[in-house]
Amino acid sequence: MSWPAAPVPCPCGSGAAYDACCGPLHRGERQARTPEELMRSRYAAYALDLTDYVFRTWHPRTRPDDVTPAPGLTWERLEIVEAETDPGAEVGVVEFRAHHRAGGAVGVMHERSRFERRAGRWVYVGGDLLDPGAGG
């Protein structure tokens, strides 16, 4: 597995360098502090083909056996629409648009994702696709 070296920008779109943003989460140096931070790190993991991280951060009750992305799919940009989490909460919601390209066609995955705190760490539970006619 090969992680980007600093100071490349993080694929999650935060504007921070990868090594100061999602890199420590991907390497297991720390856990996501909020559902939004977990969402960003999962997007970056998809963009960097770090499917083991995607698998580990998915609730075991809802995750599929295989999280391998579709062949030829390139994630290009993440847009956080809204993040809802109260301090000390055990659940959170993040609405996002993930822009991608596959075989020359562009698309957008628009989802409202649900997260839970499990054993002190945030995990992805599932989501509802929004705007299904928007290409994703």
Question: Can you walk me through this structure?
Answer:
It is a single chain. This protein is α+β, with helices and mostly antiparallel strands. It has a single domain (18-134), classed as Nuclear Transport Factor 2, Chain: A, CATH 3.10.450. Helices cover 17% and strands 35% of the residues. It has helices at 23-26, 35-47, 51-56; strands spanning 73-84, 91-102, 105-118, 121-130. It has a four-stranded antiparallel sheet, with helices on one face. It comes from Mumia flava. Belongs to the UPF0225 family. Residues 34-127 form the YchJ-like middle NTF2-like domain. It holds the Pfam family YchJ_M-like.
Q: What is CATH's topology name?
A: Nuclear Transport Factor 2, Chain: A
Residue stretches low in confidence (pLDDT < 50, at least 5 long) are none
Largest sheet: 4 strands, antiparallel
* DSSP strand content: 35-45%
CATH architecture name: Roll
Overall 3D form: globular
Order of strands across the widest beta sheet? 1-2-3-4
Would you state the CATH class?
Alpha Beta
Radius of gyration: 14 Å
Could you say how many structural domains there are in total? 1
Count of discrete alpha- or pi-helical segments spanning 4 or more residues: 3
Structural class per helix/strand content? alpha+beta
Distance between the termini: 28 Å
Q: Helix share of residues?
A: 10-25%
Q: Roughly what is the average pLDDT, rounded to an integer?
A: 92
Q: Work out the number of β strands.
A: 4
Helix-strand pattern: HHHEEEE
